[in-house]
Amino acid sequence: MKLIVECLIIILLVFSITVAYELKFVGTFIRHGDRVPTKNIPDDGTIWECKLNSLEMYNNHNFPKPTPSRHFGKKFIYDRNILPGNCSRGQLTEIGAKQQQDLGSKFRNKYVDDLNFLPRELDPDLIWLRSTDTSRTMRSAANFFSGLYPPKDKKKQDVFPIHTMDWNNENMHFNTKLCPRLAILKNQIKRSAKYRAHMDSIDFFIYQIDKIYGFIDLDGHSLLTLYNNAVFRIRHNKTLPNGLTENLIKQLKKEGGWYANFVMGNKTLVKLTIGPFLQDLLDAFDSKITGENQHKFHLYSAHNSGIVPLLAAYDSFDSTPVEFASNVVFELYQEKKKYYIKLSYNDKVIKIPGCKQEMCPYSKFKKITQKMIPKNYEKECRI
């Protein structure tokens, strides 16, 4: 009997801890879905066929909705592109669109069905979407949103804004236009003794890859790009280059991940790459806490070059290349008058460095994050 009572007490304590935290806000940073390559391989005859049907309407949402009688779709002229076929380089594929729809549906299951955090019917005042100004991230945001809130009436027309900015000002990825010093820092890291020693240690592997692809002067970034290229080919049933074995692909993955961690995960590079976005994120949290921000969910659709430094800012990048449709989720909770942040990456909870528990006090999280935000960004980015 005593054992039963003790068990009940434990259950009640666990339950009280669970319900004490009230979810107030979710910020989700995603990588776009599956895409075709961004670069072509020399003498490669692979034809890339894109069948994703995209109808786009350009309209200021403050004006009346455009008539549904006519829509326009972008279609690339066959064999007039960098990649052989009818795809633009880096274009989102049908698989990529499905990945994002599935991810949005997964978030609906959690935040609508399970937690009752978001309403069952779309309330545009609660959701805010942002994307870099590229087709694959814009479409990824749209497909994620369609999974989160599937259109019920296909005849009814909704116009929902995806916020973006000029590429030169974008702070959600490695942007040398915004911060020219990033290019210099990156080259300095690649000229460092540790980087050169590592590349020397894999010189035979690089020789093998050179021979297969016909490239010269391969660096770590090239190895990551070629790993992604191999993944595309396997997923889309395209022929792999002669001599590219499963073991070589595994090593491409390993070396590409090492490069991403050593170069893109460098703390100075991280600050200048993702620091300004972290300030945007803190502003969203702060305005939610003060009651100025009525949103409950923010989506940020971006790239691998944003997720790596974002994870590295919290010492959480494990040198594994970021997969398509990966996501970093920041959840803001309230417990009485205190606020907490819970961070996760692809469903795995991340323990924020400096915090003893998964629920990190917001005041501590803010101090940790502010260390990764440049005090004078313009000055620190000057060449």
From TrEMBL:
<comment type="similarity">
    <text>Belongs to the histidine acid phosphatase family.</text>
</comment>
<protein>
    <submittedName>
        <fullName>Lysophosphatidic acid phosphatase type</fullName>
    </submittedName>
</protein>
<dbReference type="GO" id="GO:0016791">
    <property type="term" value="F:phosphatase activity"/>
</dbReference>
<dbReference type="InterPro" id="IPR029033">
    <property type="entry name" value="His_PPase_superfam"/>
</dbReference>
<keyword id="KW-0378">Hydrolase</keyword>
<dbReference type="InterPro" id="IPR050645">
    <property type="entry name" value="Histidine_acid_phosphatase"/>
</dbReference>
<dbReference type="InterPro" id="IPR000560">
    <property type="entry name" value="His_Pase_clade-2"/>
</dbReference>
<dbReference type="Pfam" id="PF00328">
    <property type="entry name" value="His_Phos_2"/>
</dbReference>
